[in-house]
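Database export, one record per block. Field names are fixed; values are copied verbatim from the stored entry.
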Amino acid sequence: MKRIILLSLIALLVLPVLVQARVTYLSEEEYKDLKKKERLVYWENLENDLAELQQRKADAIANQEKYSATIEELNAKMVPVKTEYDKVHAEILAFLGITEADFASIMEKIKYFNGEITNWDELTDKELWNTKKAVRALVVEYNDYRGTKYGKVPDFRKDFSDLDNRIINLENNLEAAKPKYYEDEYTIVKGDWLSKIAQYSFIYGDMSKWPVIYRANRDQIKDPNLIYPDQVIKIPRGLPYEWKVYKGECLWRIAGYQEVYGNAAKWPLIFRANKDQIKDPDLIYPNQIFEIPRD
């Protein structure tokens, strides 16, 4: 008796679900196994499913007719707009002096810039920074090209807009890859001297920092008063993390350099960080390379 009641409850719970749910189609063998009432429910579900699909089809046909009419209406409206667009477009190209033959070269240039940027996007920060000259040269090249008549052709507005964003991202990535200490280069021109170079706004903007430049270039500048046009010298940026000893230097002198600590009294910091190669703080030798501790 309990079993019959339990089965009845299950049937009451399951049958409404069958009615509301999408039909699960049965095989011939599965259908034959159904009881009479179950076959009726299955048939009703099939009828409901068919009616729903027929209604959806009717709605789709009605929408198709509506959209087709709308499309035809829009096509008619587009004709004069397209005619005017083509006219203005031709006038713009004529004003810029652009011919259809120029389109291929513009597309090649866009492809070139995108390819270069993609190559740099795949580099590590260190690798990217090592190619900074080429990156900066490409940015200049792109900005120059962007300012020409070819960068104003309306057909390539989206391409150049995307490239503008990629160039900005590339510059940001290069800035983020910049190490705490690095060296730029400067080519000496006639009339330069070290204090004058140090005073340039794009160098240090401070003539008193000329010794920083001199010490970074002692391998090629023997006398700070004697420099020559076309010499390519290093311009230190940031604070160095190591120091190569030159003849006549001692720990307190190194610590006193502007680019090291600017305070000779801090020489013990260098001594303690390099005890493996400094046995006596009063005895250091040319070409030794010391770690310069930083906070």
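Remark 1: The longest strand covers residues 182-187.
Remark 2: The chain has eleven helices and four strands.
End of record.
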